[in-house]
Structure formats: C-alpha cells, structure tokens
C-alpha cells in the first residue's frame, strides 16, 4: 500500500502555517468558535451541511429559547458584529429560533471576516 500525502510534510514549528481551521456548522456554536479563532489571528473556513446559516435552528425556529439574549450572544461574535452597525437585541428578551437566526446568526455570517468569498 502506498501512502500519498496531499500536504507536504512540514517541521513541527510551521506545520499549520497557511492552513485554515475547519469549523463544522454555521450555527451559534460554530460561528462563535470561528469568531474566537479569528481573534487569535487564525484563518477559518466554516462548513455548513445545510444551504444557509443556522439550518438546524430554522427547523425549530418557532420555539422560544429559555435563555435571554445576554446568554446567547458570544463576546467574540459581538466584537465582530459591533463595527458593522449591528443593533444588539434587548439583552433581557427571550428570542425564538427564528429571531436567533435573523438577528444574530445571519448578521454574524455576513461580517466581512466570515462572509463567503
């Protein structure tokens, strides 16, 4: 059996140089993870199985969350959103899944740092 490598072997010190971190899922956790990675200066590629951001959240979009916005919005994601003119929802209100997508996930995915090339 022959092993074929698609990436040439690299020294430990530079083995990740130039390679993006793959984040699986464009839901609240995946996009928050991507925001944190970007803050660390790491290149990121977000993969979503559905055809749009928050596909699985949309399936239960009519349901209200049990947590208010202040516990839903990630700090690193907020820092990406603020320069875009994004209006943060009232921190004490309870969003639905549809609210989560429309008021948080879609704007976050459309930031210059995360928008698809």
TrEMBL record:
Gene3D superfamilies: FAD/NAD(P)-binding domain
Annotated signal peptide: none
Record Pfam families: DAO
All residue ranges annotated as the FAD dependent oxidoreductase domain in the record: 21-64
InterPro entries the record matches: FAD-dep_OxRdtase, FAD/NAD-bd_sf
Protein name: Flavoprotein
Species of the source: Curtobacterium oceanosedimentum
Organism phylogeny: Bacteria, Bacillati, Actinomycetota, Actinomycetes, Micrococcales
């Amino acid at each position: 059996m022959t092993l074929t490598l698609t990436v040439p072997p690299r020294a430990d010190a530079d083995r990740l140089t130039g390679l993006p971190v793959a984040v699986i899922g464009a839901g609240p956790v995946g996009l928050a993870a991507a925001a944190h990675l970007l803050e660390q200066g790491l290149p990121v590629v977000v993969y979503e199985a559905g055809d749009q951001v928050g596909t699985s959240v949309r399936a239960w979009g009519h349901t209200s969350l049990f947590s208010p916005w202040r516990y839903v919005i990630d700090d690193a994601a907020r820092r990406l959103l603020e320069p875009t003119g994004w209006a943060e929802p009232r921190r004490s209100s309870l969003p639905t899944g549809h609210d989560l997508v429309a008021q948080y996930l879609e704007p976050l995915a459309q930031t210059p740092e995360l928008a698809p090339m």
